[in-house]
């Protein structure tokens, strides 16, 4: 499975788990929504808002963003604004409801078979049980 295929499988599973399409949090034009969503992944609203303003300050038009060198501005290909928004939202929801920072609930995670971290955690738990003296 290629990385792109894996990303699409993750998107599909998380969308099924959390109910895509997810209604927009606010109404912007589609391109502004896309950019705002990209900037706000796993970021506090205050920080993503600042990043959005900095981007618009540096590139006042979307045409300038489009034509900027890729290492300065990266966009996913072939995703609609809704898909980008869903991606952002389901990753946030997954972090809030399952993939907790300190103790992720890997045993009930829909991504376990795709996640080396989750498999490593469960394997270590099994090893710990086997090595337990009691
Ligand atoms: S398997 Fe565990 S670490 Fe991996 S995404 Fe799921 S909850 Fe997070």
Which descriptors apply to this entry?
60% helix, mainly alpha, 134 residues, elongated
How would you characterize this protein structure?
By secondary structure, the protein is mainly alpha-helical. It has 2 domains: 3-97, no CATH class; 103-134. Helix 1 (3-18) crosses helix 5, helix 2 packs across helix 3 (45-58) and helix 2 (30-40) runs parallel beside helix 5 (81-97). The chain is built from 6 helices and no strands. The radius of gyration is 18 Å and the shape is elongated. Helix content is 60%, strand content 0%. It binds iron/sulfur cluster (SF4).
Describe the oligomeric state of these chains in a short phrase.
single chain
The dominant shape is: elongated
How big is the Rg? 18 Å
What is the straight-line distance between the termini?
Answer: 41 Å
Task: Spell out the helices and strands N to C.
Answer: HHHHHH
Share of helix among residues?
55-70%
- Average pLDDT, rounded to a whole number, is 80
Beta-strand share of residues: under 5%
- Give a quick account of the main beta sheet: strands, pairing sense, barrel closure: none
- Total number of beta strands: 0
- List the domain count as a whole number: 2
Which cofactor or ligand species appear?
Answer: iron/sulfur cluster
Low-confidence region ranges: none
Q: Counting H and I runs of at least 4 residues, what is the number of helices?
A: 6
